[in-house]
Amino acid sequence: MSIINEQHIWRWWVIAILIGLVFRLIPLLEKQYLAGDEIRSYLAATAHEGEYRLLLREAKAPLATWAPVSAWTRFIEPQAGLGLGAVARDLAMWDVHPPLYFWLLHGWTRLVGVTFWAGALLNLLLEGLILALIVAWGRAMTHDRQMALWLSVLWWLHPLSVRVSALTRAYVLLTLLTLLFAHAFYGVFYRKLPKRQRLWAGSVLLCTTVLGLLTHYLFLFVLVTSLLVLGIKFGRRQWRVVISLLVLFAMALLSFIWIYPDFFWAFTFLAEPRPDFWSGLPRRLSRTAYICAVLYGPMGLSLLLVWAQQLRVHQLAGATLWRPIRRLVDFSAYPFGVCMLAVLPVLGAALFYLLLISPHHAMGAQYMNFATPFVALVTLFILQQTTRVKVAIRAFIVLLIVLNLVQLHPAVRDFGSPPRLQPADLATDGVVVFDNQASIHWFNLALYLDATQPAYVSSQQELLAHPSRWQTRLEREGGLYLSIVLRAPDKQQS
Question: Is the pLDDT of residue 421 over 60?
Fold first, then answer.
């Protein structure tokens, strides 16, 4: 690559990265509330989730009594004496997620505090590591620095990765560890490395497997897929290679159990009585179809772009129709493994949610964010089948920018979300009464209030049964009466 060409590609790469950064910062700057799962992230990261749930269950103070707002916001703030061990124990008893992300968020909140943007800022730092890793991984895969840079742009501008960046959840960390696992997996089983480098790659593979299991149980689908890919590649010819990977996974599992011995408590929910399976199936199926469209839509558009180019030069025939994806079905080559990683873990996770999760809980698109680097690489492989690769890639990047602009439109961005809170509507020097203590969105409202403001939080039934406990003071001192109105079994509106 000449110096002029290298400067040219770096200039366009920086512009594309800045555009993607703007797409991430706009929702962050406009963020006025935390989603329910984000609030649960802060409850878990500060080891207060169990205490908060017991408070609701046993109706203890500050519930149904006048207390300062700080008596509630302390549940999502770091507290001295509650360290990483307390976070892990709290998660094991009250949540289904492993602790690594919440340990990271615990340290992060001690550094920057709890705000609407704290988790998203942590995600941006993790995404910076993902960008660097994708460039290194892409260079090893394509043996071309330019293609590696374009690959990082395809991931950075993927609408799903942009959307997930603003969420205070473990999905970005899971993406980083999945990509690191794939990079190490490629180095151990597909590259002819010197013995010392192979041992190093194997150590990274082992550590990444442990960290992935400690981040999210969806990582299990990545492990199963990698085992399947290796079995297809080597089969009976080199069965010892497959056995070595199984041994590595066993070592990782033992390490995971040693670090997080209480993990089995998280799966007690599977023994609970299940609601009628068929009642929520249509909604979950439609949600799954939507998620696949979000994740694989850009990849499908790249295939259409290649076919359009073939049609333009009169080459679209049966022999060339599948040429863009022919490279992906070579079982002995790593692109086949990438294709499997882009599809099979998503399929496994979708079936898990369809069959085992309550009908009233639909799978979110953010769960599939870990597959976006592999989707980006498959997209790059497809675009490389055009006669003018760089032109096709740039045209596709413009298309991704358009999709992100559409995603920023309020009608799309706020679809299915509660109305946006306006700080001016919550401004008061008086007292506050909140009539649904079971709604976790009370914390959203509390973050807008002064820590010393008196608040009376209780159930609507208790407020109506005992108006003298709160109504007299509210009328005397003035203030706000805030309500959560139920719209559906899993939707709440403030």
Answer: no
**pLDDT tens per residue across span 442-455:** 777 777 778 888 88
Instruction: In whole angstroms, give the CA distance from residue 82 to residue 5.
Output: 54
pLDDT digits (tens, 9 = 90+) for 45-77: 988 888 888 888 877 778 888 888 888 888 888
149 touches 394 (CB < 8 A): no
pLDDT at 494: 36
Distance of CA 69 to the CA centre of its chain: 30
Tell me if 96 is assigned to some domain. yes
Sign of CA dihedral 307, 380, 218, 229: positive
The CA distance from 124 to 112, in Å, is: 14
Which of 250, 170, 167, 168 is CA-nearest to residue 206? Answer: 250
- Which residue type does 83 have? G
pLDDT of residue 423: 57
Q: In what order do the strands lie in the sheet with 454-457?
A: 66-68, 454-457, 431-434, 479-482
Query: Do 296 and 257 fall within a single domain?
Result: yes
Instruction: Look at the chain and report how many structural domains it folds into.
Output: 2
Residue 274: its pLDDT value, please? 58
84: amino acid identity, one letter: L
Would strands 66-68 and 454-457 be described as parallel, antiparallel, or unpaired? antiparallel
Rg (CA), the chain: 25
Cβ distance 161 to 372 under 8 Å? yes
Tokens found for residue 301 = 């558009």
Which range has the worst mean pLDDT, 332-341, 396-405, 421-430? 421-430
Per-residue pLDDT at 209 = 95
pLDDT of res. 18: 95
Does 423 lie in the same domain as 317?
Answer: no
Domain end position, chosen among 377, 395, 413: 413
Residue 213 amino acid letter = L
Same domain, 440 and 337: no
357: left (phi over 0), alpha (psi -120 to 50) or beta: beta
Q: What is the mean pLDDT of residues 453-466?
A: 81
The pLDDT value recorded for residue 193 is 75
Q: For residue 487, what are its two tokens?
A: 């719209």
424 and 380 housed in the same domain:
no
Q: What is the residue range of 298's domain?
A: 171-413
| Preceding omega of 62 cis (within 30 degrees of 0) | yes
429 lies in some domain = yes
Q: How far is CA 263 from CA 94, 100, 267, in A?
A: 11, 12, 8
Residues 449 and 402 in one domain: no
